[in-house]
Amino acid sequence: MYRTLDERANRLFATKGKKITELGDELLPTKATATGKDQALKEHKREHDLALIETRIYRLALLLNVGLSCMNSHTFWFVE
After folding, report:
1. Which of 3, 16, 62, 78 is the most buried (most CB within 10 A)?
2. How far apart are CA 76 and CA 74, in angstroms?
3. What are the domain boundaries of the chain?
4. Cβ atoms 2, 11 nearer than 8 A
């Protein structure tokens, strides 16, 4: 869009002393698209969240296995 310093300076100077309502659409900022770094951070967070969920499922499965083993052997198992 505005890649050089001169283009950026011209854009800034064009907005000097004007209200936002007076500016054209070409001078207003647009929503930034996600960069590669943003995408990588989102993917890392997603993988981290999935790993936490998998860990919780694994721990619950272990607890269930212990509980079922105790029931099969007719012993009582309490968690304190």
Report:
1. 62
2. 7
3. 1-30, 35-80
4. yes
Q: Which tokens sit at 15?
A: 């907005």
Q: How far apart are CA 42 and CA 46, in angstroms?
A: 6
Three-state SS string across 19-69, please? Answer: CHHHCCHHHCCCCCCCCHHHHHHHHHHHHHHHHHHHHHHHHHHHHHHHHHH
Q: DSSP letter at 9?
A: H
- Token output for 53: 């969920």
pTM above 0.70, yes or no: no
pLDDT along the chain (80 residues), means of 10: 74 81 73 72 92 94 82 61
